[in-house]
Design a protein that fits this description.
2 copies of one chain form a homodimer. With about 375 residues, chain A is mainly beta. Chain A is built from 6 helices and 22 strands. The two termini of chain A are about 40 Å apart. Chains A and B meet through helix 2, strand 5 and strand 14 of A and helix 2, strand 5 and strand 14 of B.
């Protein structure tokens, strides 16, 4: 535990989790939210209901009849739009891999209490909506705009601060044609838990960016300083520094666990026969360039074969032939490298990241070969 | 801890969970499986993706092209049917509330390790398929049949025993017209995690009965004695007795937590104003006759107003007007009684039920009124 962690810990002692177990309040989050069972890596587009889901506060209960979206702030023509008006605009479909910024957090001994993800907080969906920038252009973005703020209907208390869930992106990101306001997932209207009637989808960014249950969009002249931007999703590297805001997804690779599971431990049991290991890898920073597999706990690595991703912002499938010849215990691992040279570390997180944000430690699967 | 528990515990010490925390392997189950966020109580039929989901082993990956269902055992005409043949039979839609038999388990100090549900392991779906008995009649059930066994494609190890997931129901239950082989949920084909391409749905019974990813249906002359029937879902009341098999759902009522949540603790914050408490109650034993609400931690109880259930096997909505006048902490509770007189106990489970099966303790919501 670093000096920073110690300082933050002393500030708020009851925000910290136990090192080797999970508390009942962390379990309360795990029971509500859910990861994607790794069998879901079999699909280009994750079936509805298997995609990971994190709800900070409550799933909002919104009637389409009374809902409308407010567009305001630093624009020429503030406006209010119905869902019908939004869905009559040009349609855009984006296949997007989305991962929670806290994926892997539960493996960190010195973590702060939050949703205790192991490694399953990911999924890929086909989102349909309309381009954000087209809508903002209609409203007339004024000179001097720096960010676009998304405010949801979900409200609660976190870190002692009561607030609506809201986050911003820079104007340069908002201009990307693939950033959409989505009203459909996998070809059907958003279900309540994915943000009905409208959410923003910002490909390549971690999940917290994709604000659900949109109430308003506000063009800002100054950077947004709200809780979910500068406290909730910021890595504090020293008590004095403002910290590093979490943005795009670091590379990660996951594997469909081979063989059959033991119910409680999820340890896998496989046979001495040729089998195909399969998984998916993604990065929000650049296309996936390489996936390597180790079947000896990381001592040696071998290249996996990559398949085509389902889209420029979707994960890349990989496969690897494995034929264990000796009975015994194997630690299978995979690691991804993207075209910009970003890789995956062995350690899940450094000591100065107690929220476990944007950590991308290597996934390990324990297999007993019989 | 009773003598029975002590005996079972000494047999298999590593099957037991810690009293006041959750282990990483229990968390591994909680991250894969998920309850229904209690906001889901707002809907007659739970939106797809919010319904609780427990997968014992893996989500099976099945292609409709190669799949078929085998019907055999004690029948005149063993047969093999394609999905097309099954879905061309008479259609039946059933709105069914389904709850995991282990709901509430995580609140039990002396529990065995398993999926650590708090109270959210429930959901209601509209299932469409064809009546089981019609199909069995076509196969010609022979005299002397006592049970019908359902075998899934999911295979794994539990309690040290490797097995396919399979469970049986008595022939008298199989004859009920509302017991169906379902290929649709909420009007669309089953997604993989709900048992694609076909599962059995037995209204009123706990969730483990509703075998997913069906491979075969076998009519039996002797009761089935497999792991999931006589070990996994049996309450052992003494080391000598065979125990009590878990069957139909005990009554339970849950409440949509009012106000807004604190992110980690899920403690609720509400205002001193009139508000409508809402929830749902169900029982597999008889219709819901009464729901009572306490706003003082169970000291006094008041009748809630019941609404019409969405079907004879679906939960009953209730509502209750509450206007807290003093700031402070409130414990809100609800309890259901069914028409057969079955109620809910205060304690989640007795000491002789270490798996926490069919326990139906009263749900309590902590609310801070400001």
């Amino acid at each position: 535990v670093s000096a920073t962690n110690t300082a933050i810990r002393e500030e708020n002692p009851n925000w910290w989790a136990d090192a080797n177990s999970v508390s009942l309040d962390e379990l309360g989050l795990a029971a509500r939210n859910h990861g994607m069972p790794l069998e879901g890596l079999a699909y280009d587009v994750t079936p509805l209901g298997m995609h990971y889901l994190l709800t900070h506060f409550d799933v909002s209960e919104i009637s389409e009849d009374t809902w409308s979206l407010e567009i305001g702030g630093h624009v020429e023509h503030p406006q209010r739009l119905t869902l019908e008006e939004i869905s009559s605009r040009p349609r855009s479909t984006q296949v997007v891999t989305m991962e929670c910024a806290g994926n892997g957090r539960a493996r960190i001994a010195g973590r702060m209490k939050s949703q205790p993800w192991l490694e399953e907080a990911v999924g890929t969906a086909s989102w349909t909506g309309t381009a954000l920038w087209g809508l903002l252009e209609s409203a007339g973005v004024k000179d001097g705009a720096v960010e676009v703020l998304f405010t949801g209907f979900d409200r609660g208390i976190q870190g002692g601060v009561e607030h609506d869930y809201e986050r911003s992106i820079p104007v340069a990101e908002a201009r990307r044609s693939e950033v959409i306001l989505a009203y459909e997932i996998n070809g059907r209207p958003l279900p309540p838990q994915h943000g009905f009637p409208l959410r923003v989808v910002v490909p390549d960014w971690y999940g917290m960016t994709n604000v659900k249950w949109l109430r308003s969009i506000t063009v800002l002249k100054e950077p947004f300083r709200g809780f979910q931007q500068v406290t909730g999703y910021t890595i504090r590297t020293s008590p004095e520094s403002p910290g590093i805001e979490v943005t795009k997804m670091q590379p990660r690779s996951l594997m469909i666990p081979p063989g059959i599971p033991e119910f409680v431990s999820r340890v896998r049991y496989a046979t001495r026969s040729a089998q195909q290991l399969r998984g998916r890898a993604w990065s929000g920073l650049a296309p996936i360039a390489r996936v390597e597999v180790s079947v000896d706990g990381g001592r040696t690595w071998d290249d996996a074969i990559l398949g085509p991703p389902a889209g420029p912002h979707a994960w890349t499938p990989w496969s690897y032939s494995w034929e264990p010849r000796e009975p015994g215990e194997y630690q299978l691992q995979s690691r991804a490298t993207d075209a910009a040279g970003n890789g995956q570390p062995f350690l899940p997180v450094d000591a100065d990241n107690p929220q476990g944000l944007a950590n991308n430690g290597i996934h390990s699967v324990r297999v007993i070969v019989r």
